[in-house]
Amino acid sequence: MSDKFFFKGRKTPKPKHESYGYNTKRAAKLGTEVNPLVLTVQTEDRQVEIIKLLDDNQLLGQVTIDASLEENVFDLMGILNKPTTTRFEKLPNRNEPCPCGSSKKYKKCCG
Questions:
Q1: Is the pLDDT of residue 104 over 60?
Q2: According to the 3-state scheme, what is the secondary structure of 72-89?
Q3: How far apart are CA 64 and CA 96, in angstroms?
Q4: How far apart are CA 75 and CA 66, in angstroms?
Q5: How far, in Å, CA of 63 to CA of 82, rounded?
Q6: d(Cα 94, Cα 92) in Å, to the nearest integer?
Q7: CA proximity to 60, closest of 38, 82, 88, 31
Q8: Residues 12, 26: Cα–Cα separation, whole Å
Q9: Are 61 and 37 in contact (CB under 8 A)?
Q10: pLDDT surpassing 60 at residue 25
Q11: What share of the chain is helix, strand, coil (3-state, %, to 5)?
Q12: Which of these, 47, 39, 48, 44, lies nearest to 79 by C-alpha position?
């Protein structure tokens, strides 16, 4: 219920940025000029592959070669293999025509 019927004091106003849904603590995306990817590989051939992947996906990153360190391309693979949302077909309502093409209502045919 509303405060105006029961509360006799002054309401504290909501800050505008919260009520409009703005994200004020947003971090910069990986792979941009502000926050480039930092990747390490062990061979020059692998460096060429990674640079090609960065160029194909329009990402910015710094690729260094160091045979003594373990390969670190987890951030790049996380960006490239981002999971997608699964979507399902919407079932018709009871009184809509049946999708099987029988020209009956859904509730009388397949429902």
A1: yes
A2: ECHHHHHHHCCCCCCCCC
A3: 60
A4: 18
A5: 21
A6: 7
A7: 31
A8: 26
A9: yes
A10: yes
A11: 25, 10, 65
A12: 39
- The Cα 75–Cα 43 span in angstroms is 19
The one-letter amino acid at 94: R
DSSP 12: P
Tokens 């509360």: give the residue. 7
The model's pLDDT over 39-65, given as tens digits with 9 standing for 90+, comes to 999 999 999 999 999 999 999 999 999
With H, G, I as helix, E, B as strand and everything else as coil, classify residue 105: strand
In this structure, what token pair is assigned to residue 44? 């020059």
pTM (2 d.p.): 0.55
The Cα–Cα gap between 20 and 22 comes to 6
- CA–CA separation, 40 and 46 (whole Å): 10
